[in-house]
Design brief:
heterodimer; A: about 325 residues; alpha/beta; TIM Barrel; six-stranded parallel β-sheet; three-stranded parallel β-sheet; 10 helices; B: about 350 residues; two-stranded antiparallel ribbon; 11 helices; about 35% helix; about 15% strand; binds zinc ion; Phosphotriesterase (chain B); hydrolase (chain B); Metal_Hydrolase (chain B)
């Protein structure tokens, strides 16, 4: 029976519903917890988060994939309480957003150790929470090229993915030749990898999205909503129309079954100000209406937000 | 929040609040109570049982106190396992004064928040921001991450990369010095490849040399280069902070004792500090998992007698284990140390 690990335990794939495949309850760079300027009381954190998840649920959202890696403020027992109280399935990640977010203990670790750690978090649980990871996060450090540590993390992720059947999700799809070489060497089929952030404003030009798709990878247009039109856009923002056209062009070339889409929003950011007005609900409030307006039918929308994530997230055995 | 009445006269910041400097007794100035390699707290095969850690540390602190110890300085900084509430409970339970530190380093031990911030480009933190972060741990209290601030840090500690100070290490050193100048607590530095060079960086920020302790001066490279004497001449404190460690890049206790005698004979007895530097409990560093039962009392039971055989008087010893670290840790504005012995 196809299943997915959520923070409250495995669920049948049929129950996932509409999936936001790359989101964050709250993200902060490691060390940001030392800087009181970002601190929020538990009341504030729940207050900023619960209404967004409830709204997501009321819009028909089923599953929220939290792509926050180890050391980035990942907080599984908090996610468990949020999931239990709002009814939204939450899938947590093992792995790292990039080598530059792995703290020294992990930065010094071997590929074997990292693979054992990821596997433990998928099969036994994360810390003492009992919650198991449903996805493995990897990524490219700041600077545009994979560092040695990034590569060790990708290789360990590939091994843990093969051992457990859980898929891999990447932060950035630049330097994809190196990433694909590692996955291929390790024997991980590329449909078990979601190459994320191909649509981001800084890297879209440098990302070989069609080439990655030709190799068999899944493609994540998963920074929808980070728009230059926002009152205070982040440096990775992109004009709304440009991103939408990029997405439509990409699926128009017969790649509908390879795409996933998400908003990469923070419900309540941990170590940065966040982006005012941007939430996971962009998917319902802006993106799906835009896709309908562009002529996509309900079957295509279901493929992007329900069927593709179900096939990607199902533990492969 | 702390149990001590307001102290009169010169004080030292302990985890239970300011304590009169005269009450500290014998001080071990460069220790680590709980040491956790950043990130190890998330590792699947590392167990952090605070009750078990408390029990182990309390036994070691009682042993230290039983042999005449008064104060332990936890110089691990703010990001290497520091657990302020645990330290408070340990101090209360054992009667040993505990001075905790702010600061961090070297670059390799920092979190990405400081090295690759979410800005374009991701420029590492400059000295002023570190100064502000560390200074507030003295003026507003040490952080329990994302929860609360507790008592004031008693010193700022930082370390340079062993192969040589990096640009971010230099920002840490300058930031630490700046925080010390503005708050009156001292700075502890562990040098990288060149003790004198690294000391000059903090002095360049206007910090009097008498407010600085240089650690690691019983490393074989420091010994060979003559840095202990050079640092003392410059007016900073010389920490021989691996007492009991032989090999592993450090001189023997016999050489260490000879070095102390030499510093005292050359008129630098008021600049010498001693410490053991073996963590009470260590997590995330497999080679250090087995820590000795009685790490900190070795200073008084074994090393002090060795110093006496090298001709040190009781007064010399008293100065080194009580007076010098007390003067270093005493909070307040300090005049530059005028010593420049030829
Ligand atoms: Zn993300």
């Amino acid at each position: 029976m196809p299943r997915v690990n959520t923070v409250l335990g495995p669920i049948p794939t049929e129950e996932l519903g509409l999936v936001a495949v790359h989101e964050h309850i709250g993200y902060g760079m490691p060390g940001s917890e030392l800087d009181t300027r970002w601190w929020k009381t538990p009341e504030e954190r729940y207050d900023e988060t619960v209404p967004k998840l409830r709204q997501f649920h009321e819009y028909g959202g089923g599953t929220f994939v939290d792509a926050t890696g180890i050391c980035n403020g990942r907080d599984v027992n908090y996610y468990q309480s949020l999931s239990e109280k709002t009814g939204v399935h939450i899938v947590a990640s093992t792995g790292f957003v990039g080598g530059d977010t792995a703290l020294p203990f992990f930065a010094r670790a071997t590929v074997d150790y990292l693979a054992a750690h990821f596997t433990h978090e998928i099969t036994v649980g994360i810390g003492n929470t009992g919650g198991k990871a449903g996805i493995i996060k990897v990524g490219v450090s700041r600077g545009g090229r994979m560092t040695d540590l990034d590569k060790r993390i990708y290789r360990a992720a590939a091994r843990a993915a093969l051992a457990t059947g859980v898929p891999v999700l990447t932060h950035l799809a630049i330097d994809a030749e190196n990433a694909i070489a590692i996955f291929t060497e390790e024997g991980l089929p590329l449909d078990r990898v979601l190459f994320g952030h191909v649509d981001d404003g800084v890297n879209a030009d440098k990302t070989r999205d069609t080439w990655i798709a030709d190799q068999g990878g899944r493609i994540g247009f998963d920074t929808f909503g980070y728009e230059t039109e926002l009152p205070d856009p982040p440096f990775w923002a992109r004009p709304r129309k440009e991103r939408l056209e990029h997405f439509l062009r990409f699926i128009g070339e017969g790649r509908l079954h390879q795409v996933l889409a998400s908003a990469d929003a923070n419900c309540s950011p941990l170590g940065w100000p966040g982006v005012e007005g941007h939430t996971v609900n962009y998917i319902f409030e802006d993106l799906i209406p835009d896709l309908r307006a562009a002529g996509l039918d309900e079957a295509a929308i279901r493929t992007i937000f329900v069927d593709n994530p179900a096939s990607f997230l199902s533990i492969a055995n | 929040m702390n149990g001590n009445p307001p102290a009169e006269g010169p004080t030292v910041n302990t985890v239970l609040g300011p304590v009169p400097a005269s009450e500290l007794g014998v001080i071990s100035v460069h220790e680590a109570l709980l040491s956790v390699v950043p990130g190890a707290e998330h590792a699947f095969d590392v167990t952090i049982d605070r009750a078990e850690i408390f029990e182990a540390l309390a036994a070691k602190l009682r042993d230290f106190r039983g042999h005449g110890g008064g104060t332990i300085v936890d110089s691990t900084g703010m990001f290497h396992g520091r657990d302020v509430r645990l330290l408070e409970a340990l101090s209360r339970a054992t009667g040993v004064h505990i001075v905790a530190s702010t600061g961090m380093g070297p670059e390799e031990l920092l979190g990405g928040y400081f090295l690759t911030p979410q800005t374009n480009p991701p420029t590492p933190w400059p000295a002023e921001k570190f100064a502000d972060l560390f200074g507030k741990e003295v003026t507003e209290g040490m952080v329990v991450p994302r929860v609360e601030r507790r008592g004031a840090a008693g010193l700022v500690t930082t370390t340079a990369t062993r192969e040589g100070m990096t640009a971010t290490d230099e920002s840490l050193f300058r930031g630490a010095a700046h925080a010390a100048v503005s708050t009156g607590v001292p700075v502890s530095i562990r040098f990288g490849a060149d003790a004198v060079h690294d000391l000059e960086i903090v002095l360049d920020e206007g910090l009097p040399a008498g407010r600085v302790v240089v650690g690691g001066l019983d490393r074989t490279d420091a010994y060979a280069a003559g840095w202990p004497l050079a640092v003392a001449r410059r007016g900073a404190y010389v920490a021989l902070d691996h007492v009991g460690t032989e090999g592993d890049g450090h001189v023997s206790d016999a050489e260490r004792a000879a070095l102390v005698a030499e510093l005292v004979e050359s008129g630098h007895g008021d600049r010498v500090l001693l410490s053991i530097g073996t963590p009470g409990v260590s997590k995330g560093e497999p080679t250090r998992d087995l820590t000795p039962e009685q790490p900190w009392s070795h200073l008084l039971t074994t090393f002090v007698p060795l110093l006496k055989t090298r001709g040190l008087s009781d007064e010399d010893v008293q100065r080194i284990v009580v007076d010098n670290p007390r003067d270093l840790l005493t909070v307040g504005p300090h005049a530059a140390h005028e010593q420049e012995v030829a």
